[in-house]
Amino acid sequence: KNEVEQSPQNLTAQEGEFITINCSYSVGISALHWLQQHPGGGIVSLFMLSSGKKKHGRLIATINIQEKHSSLHITASHPRDSAVYICAVRSNTGNQFYFGTGTSLTVIP
Amino acid sequence: DGGITQSPKYLFRKEGQNVTLSCEQNLNHDAMYWYRQDPGQGLRLIYYSQIVNDFQKGDIAEGYSVSREKKESFPLTVTSAQKNPTAFYLCASRRQGSTGELFFGEGSRLTVL
Q: Which one, of A34, A29, A84, A43, lies nearest residue A61 by Cα?
């Protein structure tokens, strides 16, 4: 059983579309992270949140602690947004992180 | 600029050989991690360290070893005992405490021939 589940696994969108990626988790957490992995393999952190909502440019992340669910939204998607988006949670019982399997996003011009 | 440097980016190894992957950070982070990434799976923890000269096994530590002699450095050795070492390896670090974001290196891709 995976502690973190993401959906969809793969997503193709037309440029300009609004995109939503979902993440559900089953453990108690101290924080949830949204990460972006480009084809070269390096990973960058997009958001770290423990409640509510955060916005950075065209990216918005929300979390509902009671429902153990988070969403990552991309407004006005662009081909440069094409990447794998990974949801990760930090356990509230220690330093352990749990990772989803990622959502592969392709934005077509 | 502060960050995490992993090397080499690509590495080929013959069966039976040990290899060491380098991870260096200049972020002054206490905690460092090694993860393995395989297609279709989430990142899996190999080892982590919260302080110099101390480290703990993760979920898939068998066949791997680490050291943490300096705060900046956390090298990973993939030994010949690791049965399926071909994978993408990621090093990460974070500041201790609840607000510490995870920072990742660019990864090292190991292929066993």
A: A34
